[in-house]
Amino acid sequence: MASPRNPHPNAHPLAGAHSNAPQVAAQLNARAAAALPAVASVVQHYAMLLETAVKVQASGRPGPNAPTGDYRRSWTHEFSISGMNAEAIVGTNKPQGRRLEYGFVGADILGRIYNQPPFPHVGPAVEEIRPLFLAAVGAAVGD
User: Residue 131: is the preceding peptide bond cis (ω within 30°)?
Assistant: First the structure.
């Protein structure tokens, strides 16, 4: 039987339910709001570092050759804050990005046959930056 103190239908009329969930939620929201500027700064900084690391990895073997620098120059980053989220996107607008990173075997749309090996440059850059980024985010939120 529900009671005003405990709305559950099977609850004893004298049983009460108490929760500090609203207080905990308010404290978490306050801490998140306080940490957002520091985390946003870390995200933006490490997006720039990742972009630089990709460009370094894409500057010759074992990554792709960069005779003109056009592909390397195409790597950029975008940073945004939306509500309580800080986001950075690092990428290229060049169509050869996937083919250089993962390689390509087979015919292309024009019927040309390729057996191009992969020249990883994004994966190694991410693995280089990841532990530094995670440590910096942990420090920013007081972990």
Answer: no
